[in-house]
């Protein structure tokens, strides 16, 4: 839950200006962790996949812009950050359902490169 809230806060509060590889990792971790769960149907897994890829796509686009790889003249501001709550809330709801069904933490390996 902390990871999706980090992604949401970066987009809504900062417009993804601080997007980095940690946030990209969070998107992938959330996506993989949720779609591997048998409690979700295939349509739900597809929804998770699409949402998390879209949020990551916005962040990576912002990172490319902030790194100077996209010029001011070429940037599409609507692609920099998704700032509405609905997509983040949907993912939070999936996380909540998972927590309700399986209260034990999801196993993960510590990634020492994560700074956040």
Give a summary of the structure in a few sentences.
This protein has 116 residues and is mainly α. The chain has helices at residues 2-14, 21-35, 42-66, 86-101.
Radius of gyration: 15 Å
Roughly what percent helix?
55-70%
- Uncertain segments are none
> How many strands?
0
Q: Give a short account of the largest sheet.
A: none
Shape: globular
Order of helices and strands: HHHH
How are the SSEs placed, and which strands pair?
Blueprint (H helix, E strand, L loop, with lengths): L1 H13 L6 H15 L6 H25 L19 H16 L15
Helix pairs in contact: 1-2, 2-3
How would you characterize the overall build of this protein?
There is one protein chain. The protein is mainly alpha-helical and 116 residues long. The chain has one domain (2-101). Helix content is 59%, strand content 0%. The chain has four helices and no strands. The chain is globular.
Features:
mainly alpha; 116 residues; 4 helices
């Amino acid at each position: 839950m902390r990871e999706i809230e980090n992604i949401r806060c970066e987009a809504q509060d900062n417009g993804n200006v601080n997007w980095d590889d940690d946030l990209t990792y969070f998107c992938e971790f959330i996506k993989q962790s949720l779609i591997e769960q048998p409690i979700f149907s295939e349509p739900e897994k597809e929804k998770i996949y699409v949402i998390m890829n879209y949020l990551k796509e916005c962040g990576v686009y912002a990172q490319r812009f902030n790194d100077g790889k996209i010029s001011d003249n070429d940037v599409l501001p609507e692609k920099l950050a998704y700032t509405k709550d609905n997509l983040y809330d949907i993912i939070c709801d999936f996380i909540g359902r998972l927590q309700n069904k399986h209260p034990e933490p999801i196993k993960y390996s510590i990634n020492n490169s994560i700074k956040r």
